[in-house]
Amino acid sequence: MNPTKATVILAILLLLLCGCAHRTVEMRVSYNSGWDVGEIKKCERASGTSVAPDNRGDVLLCDSGPQVDWIQSHRDAVYESAKTYSVVLLTNGKDEPWVSGKGHDTFWQCKKTANDIECR
Fold it and tell me: Is residue 7 part of a domain?
């Protein structure tokens, strides 16, 4: 095998491995009410919406309340209600098309554990 083919194969393997590995990030998480261990909520990252986070950073928006507040530019309320957690992103999320059909959002099903929040 020539060096060019080997380099391409190695690059493809690295991309596949990086796509399969989970990522753990410390981030703010905003949700409507209590979140019991084992409970699952539908979440999306603010950075994946049409309204970019400000200098306070990204927020995981769980439940419809924080998601609507974020889009309606009530970001101060979202940041104030958010708590910081270790968030384990086990997948790249699932794309869901907008009702209008003009775009999509990426969502995760996130489960609260004793130590962190795990999102698939």
Answer: no
For the whole model, what pTM was predicted? Answer: 0.76
> Is residue 8, in this structure, part of any structural domain at all?
no
Domain that holds residue 92: 22-119
How far is residue 113's CA from residue 110's CA, in Å, rounded to a whole number?
10
R_g of the chain, CA atoms, integer Å: 17
Using CA atoms, how far apart are residues 6 and 3, in angstroms rounded to an integer?
5
Nearest to 110 by CA among 48, 50, 54, 29: 29
pLDDT in tens, 8-32: 565 554 444 444 557 899 999 999 9
Number of domains in the chain: 1
Whether the per-residue pLDDT at 119 is higher than 80: the answer is yes
Contacts of 74-77 with CB under 8 Å at 24 or more apart are 75/51
